[in-house]
Amino acid sequence: MRYNYAIIGGGASGLMLAALVDLNKCKATGVIYEATSVLGSKILMSGGGRCNITHDGSIKDFLQAYGEAGKFLRKSLYKHNNLELIRWLEQELPTVSEEGRVFPAGFKASDVLNFLLKKVKSNGWTIQSGCKIARLEEVDADDIIVACGGITYPETGSDGSMLKILAEIGVNIVEPRSALAPIKIKDYPYSQLAGVSVKDVTVSIEGSGKTHRCSGDILFTHNGFSGPAVLNISKYAAPGDRISINYRKRPEELPKRLYKAIEERSRGASGDIRTKALSRMLENDFFTVGSVDSRGMVTHGGVALSEINPATMELRPHLYAIGEVIDADGITGGYNLQMCYSTAATVADTILKARSEQES
Ligand SMILES: Cc1cc2nc3c(=O)[nH]c(=O)nc-3n(C[C@H](O)[C@H](O)[C@H](O)COP(=O)(O)OP(=O)(O)OC[C@H]3O[C@@H](n4cnc5c(N)ncnc54)[C@H](O)[C@@H]3O)c2cc1C
Questions:
Q1: Neighbours of 314 (CB within 10 A)
Q2: Whose CA is nearest to atom 35 of ligand 1?
Q3: C or N: which end of the chain has fewer Cβ atoms within 10 Å?
């Protein structure tokens, strides 16, 4: 059967789009092809099962959360902002805010997924799960929307295979890599500190002639660093880069175990504590990146933004890309699901406008 609309990928962005387009009202047909047997696996994982759906505050402040991609996303974020997403959910699902992060009031990611699935079904979409698209020619539809996600957690179905298919038809792809991920350190000296966290430090990554900085909390792990500041900067890290931490604290403000470990490392050959080395390390404790954990919460890279019209999310005539599959990713705090919503709602506008033009 030929459909008017085919969405490839039944994750957050694909489901949001289908939940926004009522096919009954616009007298159209549509299908969602989902590779796995489970729709919305990453929604269920999000926010540790609580689903941090978006962030509070002015949408203007969102742009910087996406780094260089913020400029590209401006149109869709401004047109379909966080307040709109919250209002939409609150038709059925109250939300709450915790330190700026917005969650469903019951703190259950499954409530968000159920909200979407209910709308998708009542909007008349056909769902074909267990159907992995291997070539775009397989899809018999007037318009195709690619919502295939990134490359991390491939067991959820987001395995990056669609990026290869798009590359074959000439779409420019920015090499995808794991982001919002812990960083493993080469010759890590602090494994005994696993579980210790420090508030409000500055982490810097230096590599390929560029330096990136991020401030926030860090967590010591058994093989490196995690915590918001590290997760948020991880997309810039590559093996061999220099990573340094400025603790921005006086010695007595640091956790005792950490201070002791730093003190140990600043000992000279004769065993004496070198005061200058110690104070340098408090401002610039540096290491070499071993690797970035492949199980990042998002993917940095994907369909190059230069290929997409930011006002419509059109990639080629009748071919669109939304959500994590595009080369845009945000910091932690609900920015990634907001990006899924705003890009999906932008395509929904295009579909609804085209349908109403056809009818009149
Ligand atoms: C552990 C974890 C926690 C997270 N927490 C948060 C959070 O609290 N807040 C937040 O904003 N973001 C969070 N994120 C990120 C957010 O979940 C994702 O950015 C978002 O779900 C991406 O949605 P998507 O629809 O673009 O892609 P995905 O959710 O990855 O969905 C893509 C779908 O496409 C399907 N697919 C892929 N290829 C094909 C194909 N060829 N044919 C058919 N189907 C295909 C896949 O099976 C998958 O179901 C988290 C992510 C993880 C992993």
A1: 19
A2: 9
A3: C
Q: Tell me: do 200 and 237 sit in the same domain.
A: yes
| C-beta of 65 in contact with ligand 1 (< 6 A) | no
Does residue 160 line the site of ligand 1, with CB under 6 A? no
Largest CA distance in the chain: 87
CA of 157 to the centre of ligand 1 (A): 9
- Is 159 in the same domain as 245? no
Q: Compute the distance from residue 321 Cα to the ligand 1 centre, in Å.
A: 14
Question: Of 292, 318, 338, at which residue does a domain stop?
Answer: 292
Q: Mutation test of ligand 1: which of 32, 41, 42 has the most ligand atoms closer than 8 Å to its C-beta?
A: 42
Report the nearest atom of ligand 1 relative to the CA of 335: 11
First-last CA distance in the chain = 26
In testing the pocket of ligand 1, which one of 31, 46, 126 has its CB within 8 Å of the most ligand atoms? 46
Same domain, 280 and 197: yes
Q: Is 341 in the pocket of ligand 1 (CB under 6 A)?
A: no
Split into its structural domains, the chain has a count of 2
What's the CATH number where 77 sits?
3.50.50.60
Strand partners, 177: 300
Q: Is the CB of 6 under 6 A from ligand 1?
A: no
Considering the domain architecture, whether residues 267 and 191 belong to the same structural domain is answered as yes
Q: Tens-of-pLDDT digits for all 360 residues of the chain?
A: 899 999 999 999 999 999 999 999 999 999 999 999 999 999 999 999 999 999 999 999 999 999 999 999 999 999 999 999 999 999 999 999 999 999 999 999 999 999 999 999 999 999 999 999 999 999 999 999 999 999 999 999 999 999 999 999 999 999 999 999 999 999 999 999 999 999 999 999 999 899 999 999 999 999 999 999 999 999 999 999 999 999 999 989 999 999 999 988 888 767 677 888 888 999 999 999 999 999 999 999 999 999 999 999 999 999 999 999 999 999 999 999 999 999 999 999 999 998 888 877
Structure tokens at 40: 């919305």
Domain match, 348 and 303 both: yes
CATH number (domain holding residue 227): 2.40.30
CA-CA distance, 302 to 325, in Å (whole number)? 5
Count the alpha carbons within 13 Å of 158 in the hemisphere toward its beta carbon. Answer: 32
List phi, psi (to 5°) of 326: -85, 160
Residue 311 shares a structural domain with residue 171? yes
